[in-house]
Fold Dihydroorotase.
Amino acid sequence: MTETLTITRPDDWHVHLRDGEMLQAVARYTARQFTRAIVMPNLTPPVTTSAMAAAYRERILAALDEGQDFTPLMTCYLTDNADPDDMAHGFEAGIYTAAKLYPAGATTNSDSGVTDVANIKGALARMADIGMPLLVHGEVTDAEIDIFDREKVFIERILQPLIEELPHLRVVFEHITTENAVGFVKSAGPNVAATITAHHLHINRNAMFEGGIRPHAYCLPIAKREHHRQALRKAATSGSPKFFLGTDSAPHEVEAKESACGCAGIFSAPHALESYLKVFEEEDAIDKFEGFASFHGPDFYRLPRNSDTITLTRKPNQVVEGLAAAGTVVVPFHAGDTINWEFAA
Ligand SMILES: NC(=O)N[C@@H](CC(=O)O)C(=O)O
Ligand SMILES: [Zn+2]
Ligand SMILES: [Zn+2]
């Protein structure tokens, strides 16, 4: 049995670091485990210009602990009024690594998102030309589509036609949750990849209703049926370069989660690697972990792989019930549970 595992230091290809006091509290957890992270732009107001992204990057760097070596990779929040010139300038100047498509109303702080992909065709064509990746929150927002079907319908109505129209567009289908998404990504060209969260590998939709309503298991896209979770586990551990690590760690204050209208998001940053590794161990695929966590992401983004290493040790690791943040508490994924791996810097 593997007792310690040393791998190339991983990156997180999808994370919410927030801003202000929450940023001050949570940035350190991501910087502790990862060298780089794709930082989501869904702040209020959203990060829609390269100047805003450059300023946000500075705030992130200022929030790190002494001695932490971490590179935030910034993203542009696309709106109906996206400015292709500023976006392309930001990409070419190294301020932006990618741009993010939030269908308006699909998730947290997506109200300024895109109401119809037709409105951003100019920006998308420009991205295809310059090789700038498009990151997608892939859910339709139509109230008549069942919440558990929104990802599948997004593929049929939006993503498949988009890729047919712009076959060279580089696309990361973020936080996939269905076997439909796994199948779509596998059958698409090498310019289409996906991130998979730790929580969607661990929980199915029953977790939200286990003995009562469980707001800390609520995230978007919502967890699906067990056969979808099994398909995600198979994809993540398959060794395919199309699937890579993106935690979607999304902290909300405990009061905003434990509420009559609780926010979507699971805060997985503190023990992200341990959580993923547990899945790879259960799937008897520890040998595939380094590719998923450390190689497939930079290869897709055309960035160098990291050169330093990290070590995880097999030992009981008790996860705390809550962490202090922004004058209150955030509840981490696996709160109160014991995971059998521990990350050591
Ligand atoms: N995943 C979530 O449930 N929430 C994210 C938004 C997102 O990634 O869709 C957040 O910003 O809180
Ligand atoms: Zn999302
Ligand atoms: Zn997210």
In short: The pocket of N-carbamoyl-L-aspartate (ligand 1) is lined by residues 16, 42, 107-108, 137, 219-220, 248, 250, 264-265 (CB under 6 Å). The CA atoms of residues 148 and 266 lie 18 Å apart.
